[in-house]
Write a structure and sequence with these properties.
Immunoglobulin-like, globular, six-stranded mixed beta sheet, 6 helices, single chain
Length: 501
């Protein structure tokens, strides 16, 4: 009887909208064909009389010491995880020369940076992937001060997982903080093979718990901060009473909740946008995959302390940032207690100082984005937008100047941090309730059962990705394109360049 019921269930599932067996690998016609201008001719920028900042990045294989006596085979920019830190000043013209010494194609995407479409680093959409032994130069004006990061967008579920990422800071011309530190959080499969979503037992059942992270928790066994784990994590050195700006990026695919000593921190920016409003007594920061959060941190005493992953998840002990003075820098902090947790501050806890829209605008385009899970024949689990997987997901079709409203609903059982390239959007409401203080972002973390309404202006012509930044989900379909009328991409998925966006 059980076998019969299971059989009926399988048949019903494979005949439901959740099942998808479309293996088409070409972009929608409006993206690659039709009258108009190539994205290669749109939004061109030149240095003019601006200062030029030049960097050279080499993608290369590295045996990386992650800590605890463990070494991983990593793919890196300039031989380290994270890659070389990039810092520029707002208004400078940035030139980055990428050389590929790996045996696979790569690119660089400038996460969160507002730049010309052809510099966005998406293979098959804005460029061809950079082949082994070849080079590519990225150039753009660094106009918007804030916290950013860079990573490969070629088969990013694998390449970012192996370490192809680094930090990017566009500093204000007048710095607010003398001490300014960057921390990139990540997860690795060190003592196990990374599990494959095509046959991950227990994920669907784990999703029933409402956790939203059943897949990533099975995939990885080690947490890192700036490429190191456990006692190998470099301490933050500050003296009593000093205040610093701490910039956090989550380069992994699992959300993290960091606990700070009570009364020591306040959030000051989110996705490169300054925040305002009362913050209460929170000492826990939740950061979604792909998200950037800046905090102001004050060292309250001369005693050592820790900023640490909340202890309610497996491997939490790996993610502990010691906070020490020069005097006690050599004292161990591994047995130090994590502070008790209070309220959690996440990416939508505080409104933005500068809004895109003072009032809720009347949209020219409305797009309903339903995020769900399904199956793809021979491929296992699929992650869908409006019951389709990329590149067959319906694009968001816009004209330059349009006001675009997107209603995002997560009807699946996994978390989906949705990231829009080339634009900022304003988060207007959650689950039908309007925010008194709206939030300006480029990534919104949509958990199971949640619904957000966002608005953005179509003010950066091109063909832009909008996708889940759990790149394992994007790899299995949760990607669409903001498709501007009058422009097209001359590139193709796959083909001789093996473009895998």
């Amino acid at each position: 009887m059980i076998i019969i019921l299971l059989g009926i269930g399988v048949v019903m599932f494979f005949n439901s909208p959740l099942y998808n067996n479309n293996n088409t690998q070409s972009l929608p016609d409006g993206v690659t064909e039709g009258e108009g201008t190539s994205i290669m001719e749109v939004g061109n920028q030149e240095a003019g009389d601006r200062p030029v900042k030049t960097f050279n990045l080499t993608a290369q294989e590295t045996e990386w010491e992650i800590g605890n006596g463990e070494t991983v085979n990593a793919w890196t920019y300039n031989g380290t995880v994270p890659g070389e830190p990039l810092r520029v000043t707002e208004g400078e013209y940035v030139r980055i020369n990428l050389k590929n010494e790996l045996e696979v194609p790569v690119t660089i995407h400038w996460h969160g940076v507002l730049l010309p479409n052809k510099m966005d680093g998406v293979p098959g959409l804005t460029q061809n992937s950079v082949q082994p032994g070849e080079s590519f130069t990225y150039e753009y004006i660094a106009d918007d001060a804030g916290t950013y990061w860079y990573h490969s967008h070629q088969h990013s579920s694998k390449q970012v997982d192996k370490g192809l990422y680094g930090s990017l800071v566009i500093e204000e011309k007048e710095k607010e903080y003398e001490q300014d530190e960057f921390f990139i959080l990540d997860e690795w499969a060190v003592n196990q093979e990374k599990r494959d979503l095509s046959n991950m037992g227990g994920m669907m059942m784990g999703g029933m718990s409402g956790d939203g992270e059943a897949d990533t928790k099975q995939m990885y066994d080690t947490f890192t901060v700036n490429g190191k784990t456990g006692e190998a994590i470099e301490p933050l050195v500050m003296e009593e009473g000093e205040t610093a700006r701490l910039r956090f990026v989550n380069a992994g695919f699992q959300q993290h909740q960091l606990v700070f000593p009570k009364g020591s921190m306040k959030v000051i920016a989110n996705d490169a946008e300054k925040v305002n409003g009362e913050q209460g007594s929170t000492n826990v920061m939740e950061i979604a995959p792909g998200e950037r959060i800046d905090v102001e941190f004050t060292k309250q005493t001369r005693d050592a302390a820790v900023i640490a992953q909340k202890t309610d998840v497996e491997n939490a002990e790996d993610m502990r940032i010691p906070v020490v003075t020069k005097e006690n820098a050599d004292n161990p902090t591994s047995d130090m207690d994590v502070a008790a947790s209070t309220d959690i501050a996440n990416g939508v806890s505080y409104g933005s100082e500068k809004l895109l829209f003072e009032e809720t605008p009347d949209p020219d385009v409305t797009y309903n984005m339903d995020l769900s899970m399904g199956m793809n024949m021979g491929q296992g689990m699929a992650f869908q937008i409006n019951n389709e997987i990329f590149p067959d997901t319906p694009p968001i079709q816009v004209k330059e100047g349009d006001i675009v409203k997107v209603n995002i609903t997560n009807s699946g059982r996994m978390n989906h941090p949705m990231h829009l390239h080339g634009h900022r959007f304003q988060v207007a409401s959650k689950n039908g309730s309007a925010y008194e203080n709206p939030i300006v972002k480029d990534l919104i973390h949509v958990k199971p059962g949640e619904e957000y309404t966002i608005y953005f202006e179509a003010n950066n012509k091109g063909e832009w990705l909008f996708h889940c930044h759990d790149n394992n989900h994007a790899d299995r379909g949760m990607v669409t394109i903001v498709d501007y009328q009058g422009v097209y991409s001359p590139f193709e998925i796959g083909e001789k360049y093996d473009n895998q966006p």
